[in-house]
Amino acid sequence: xxxxxxxxxxxxxxxxxxxxxxVMFYLIIVMFLVSWxxxxxxxxxxxxxxxxxxxxxxxxxxxxxxxxxxxxxxHGALIEVIWTLTPALVLVLIAIPSFVLxxxxxxxxxxxxxxxxxxxxxxxxxxxxxxxxxxxxxxSYMIPEEELKEGQLRLLEVDRKLWLPVNTNIRILVTAxxxxxxxxxxxVGVKIDCVxxxxxxxxxxxxxxxxxxxxxxxxxxxxxxxxxIAIKAVxxxxxxxxxxxxxxx
Length: 249
Fold this sequence. Notes:
Order of helices and strands: HHHHEEEEEEEEEEH
Low-confidence stretches: none
Radius of gyration: 28 Å
Largest sheet: 5 strands, mixed
Number of strands: 10
Mean pLDDT: 86
CATH superfamily of the largest domain: Cupredoxins -  blue copper proteins
Strand order of the largest sheet: 3-2-1-5-8
CATH topology of the largest domain: Immunoglobulin-like
Strand content: 15-25%
């Protein structure tokens, strides 16, 4: 069972993972600090204060004097200022890298290759339209469980994979032919809605070769769980050979 992110294949996904780790660092610190302060308040105004079994007045005064030391951390003008400024500072420390990452995800570099993905109920269609010899289009259907070969992944394998070159600026255009879909590949760091009658776009730069899986993450109907995405990242020379082979079929 995977409890962490998938291995990143793009710089954007690497930034998402690093940002997640930074936020978790702040979250753990805040959690321990708040837990300690809650424990201090409960201890100060809890059993020790109201239900303590003190035998004499001197012992009662000593306990209450010790509790006054805790009140310097839980009460007072200074601690109120700290409680106000510290969360604001934490939010600034989170906001700066999040804005940088957000704008990096929306930035579209001049693409070398453009691919169009069209969501249908319940499969994907892909179009390559940058080639002089014509357009390359095909449909990508999930392989049924009874047809899977040994080593293939259930609900993720498709009959025709989306081939993409590595170390290339790629633009992905997405739309839908019927209902809302969502083209999502976690390791690539792309999750973009497919809206009928509208084109949305995202960019990617695959840094290594491999096979990367995703799925439609929109509740698009009864067979929503059977719209897998499989990207095969290959060198540019192999990609050109694959394109020429399919165009000449």
